[in-house]
Every structure is written in C-alpha cells, then in structure tokens.
C-alpha cells in the first residue's frame, strides 16, 4: 500500500488519500472499530466494515470462522497477509486494533490515524 509511514506507537499508519483509494479496492479491507451507535450518530466511511474494538480480537482470531465472520460483519474475513486498515474516530482505538491484529499474526495492518474526524474534514461539503 502506498503512503504508509512508520508510527512509533503502533506500526504503519496511513492518511486520507490512502483510505479514500482503499475503500474502493477489493484487495484491501478497511475496518471501522467504533461502536455501531457512533456510526449512526456521526456517520461512517462508505465501504468500511464495522467490527467494534471489543470484538476485534475474537473476530480476527481462530474462534470465528470465515463463514461466521461473513454472517456477523457482511464481509470476508481477511487472511493473515491481507492488507487491513483500521479506523475509528481519531486514531486511538484503531491503533489498539492494529496492534491486536498484529499480535494475532496479521502482517499487513495499518492505522488511519486521522480517523472519522480527518475524513469528515476532507469530505465536508462534497
């Protein structure tokens, strides 16, 4: 993935431009880790998959099959090498999710550190 930078806290991070392209690319999954009510109240990035932070470890772990993941989240469960971008409101929770996925063996995980606040700033009025 282009424009990834090393983050001293959690590993690779990405910006608005990368996420804007990623949500249209079937070779990348963008996971929003906010709670469902936050998506309803604030809005969501079209094309993202909602897996709340409290569910990330189990959802991406061996406990949840590919079939069960699809039923719960209406998306394919990524393989360990599949690129994943995590997002949230401001980048903190998505950083935690990124580290969780990395600890589960996912090798291509990044964090949209600007999150919804950055996305909204870039897309307001469009």
UniProtKB/TrEMBL annotation:
- Classification via Pfam families: Rhodanese
Highest taxon of the source? Answer: Eukaryota
Output this protein's name: Rhodanese domain-containing protein CG4456-like
PANTHER family associated with the record:
THIOSULFATE SULFURTRANSFERASE RDL2, MITOCHONDRIAL-RELATED, THIOSULFATE SULFURTRANSFERASE_RHODANESE-LIKE DOMAIN-CONTAINING PROTEIN 3
The Rhodanese domain covers 24-124
Q: Which InterPro entries match?
A: Rhodanese-like_dom, Rhodanese-like_dom_sf
């Amino acid at each position: 993935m282009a424009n990834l930078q090393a983050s001293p806290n959690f590993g690779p991070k990405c910006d608005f431009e990368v996420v804007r392209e990623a949500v249209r690319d079937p070779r990348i999954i963008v996971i929003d880790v906010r709670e469902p009510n936050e998506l309803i109240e604030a809005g969501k990035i079209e094309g993202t998959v909602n897996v709340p932070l409290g569910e990330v470890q189990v959802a991406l772990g061996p406990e949840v099959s590919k079939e069960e993941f699809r039923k719960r989240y209406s998306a394919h469960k990524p393989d360990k090498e599949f690129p994943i971008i995590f997002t949230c409101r401001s980048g903190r929770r998505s950083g935690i999710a990124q580290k969780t996925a990395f600890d589960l063996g996912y090798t291509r995980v990044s964090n949209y550190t600007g999150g919804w606040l950055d996305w909204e700033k870039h897309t307001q009025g469009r």
